[in-house]
Amino acid sequence: MNISGAFYALFAFAVFATHDAVIKYLGVSYSPFQMIFFSTLFSFPLVTFMLIRDKTSGHLRPVHPWWTALRTFCTTINVMCAFYAFTVLPLAQVYAILFATPLLITVLSIPVLGERVGPHRWGAVVVGLIGVFVVLRPGSTDLTLGHAAALTCACLGGLASIIVRKVGREERTVVLMLYPMVANFIIMGTLMVFTYKPLPINDLGGIGALSVLGFTGGVFLIIAYKASEAAIVAPMQYSQIIWATLFGSLFFGESIDLGTVIGAGIIIMSGLYIVFRESQGGTSQNTPVLRTRSRASSASSFRISPFLRRSNSK
Predict the structure, then answer these.
(1) Nearest to 244 by CA among 95, 118, 59, 128
(2) Number of helical (H) and strand (E) elements in the chain, helices listed first
(3) 218: pLDDT confidence band, cut at 50, 70 and 90?
(4) Vertex 164, ends 162 and 165: CA angle to 5°?
């Protein structure tokens, strides 16, 4: 068994965590709309470079327009919620909530993919959702708009991933990637008008760094999945909470409370168990969690699954 992919994935998720720390730093001064607009703008050349390699003939009309429209909507709101949550909540707490995404993917795979979910994975989902309640502790802590944004991000990110699993083999890579980017560019550019602040050169460089970090993380994630099996690579995403704790403590004066630690631990163990069950086969025909190989909460990253699928077909 080749485990080198785990090390590439650890590096990729360290890059992604750095990306999110930059969001938090810039979010003190700028709205999510402005950050997403410029990071999308700077990402266009990088993603275009990736798309140039796609020699698949065709047009830009989606094969499944309604699914594509729903995914574009989900991705746009997902990114906006992620940027806002990272700005107003402790980094580790945001990750703890976002780690519930595999649980939601498992549930959504039933109506969308016709997936059969056995009692083991249902049990993991229930336990994981208990972990979410431990993190949020409704009634004992104030639930803010930031918590709602993080939960919305997890839900819409899960739905967007399931849609890609459903139509991804029939839609061109350029359609899957270009429509959400154009939507972010137009919608965030429109909303930015009401909150725009001039960007000094240092902050402009910071937003440029978001694009480079998102792109770099995606490239190394591709390398990781090419080097090792998904069951080895996927669990590495949970390393982000270590970086979040470190960055939060060093740069933002954040401390992680016991409830977040316990809740995050429960959610992570549930997610790992679902990955384990899918990797063992059984009733899972679509392996929706293992097949979710991209980080959907970044405007400056890109979906890596189409590139992996194309390379496997050669």
Answers:
(1) 95
(2) 13, 0
(3) confident
(4) 60
Asked whether the beta carbons of 50 and 307 are under 8 A apart, the reply is: yes
Contact of 219 with 303, CB cutoff 8 Å: no
List the domain range (segments joined by +) for residue 280.
4-312
What Cα–Cα distance (Å) separates residue 92 from each residue in 18, 198, 204, 218, 295? 13, 30, 26, 21, 17
Residue among 138, 132, 142, 146 nearest 86 (CA):
146
Q: Sorting pLDDT into bands at 50, 70 and 90, what band is 18? A: very high
C-alpha torsion sign, points 105, 111, 115, 121: positive
Q: Which residues pair with 138 in a beta bridge?
A: 141
Q: Bridge-partner residues for 141, per DSSP?
A: 138
| Per-residue confidence band for 170, with pLDDT thresholds at 50, 70 and 90 | confident
The CA distance from 197 to 35, in Å, is 11
Domains: count for the chain: 1
Please report which helix (H) or strand (E) contains residue 72, including its range. Answer: helix 65-88
pTM metric for this prediction? 0.90
**Spatial separation of the C-alpha atoms in residues 89 and 200, rounded to whole Å:** 25
Q: Encode 23-57 in three state secondary structure.
A: HHHHHCCCCHHHHHHHHHHHHHHHHHHHHHCCCCC
Q: How far apart are CA 138 and CA 142, in angstroms?
A: 7
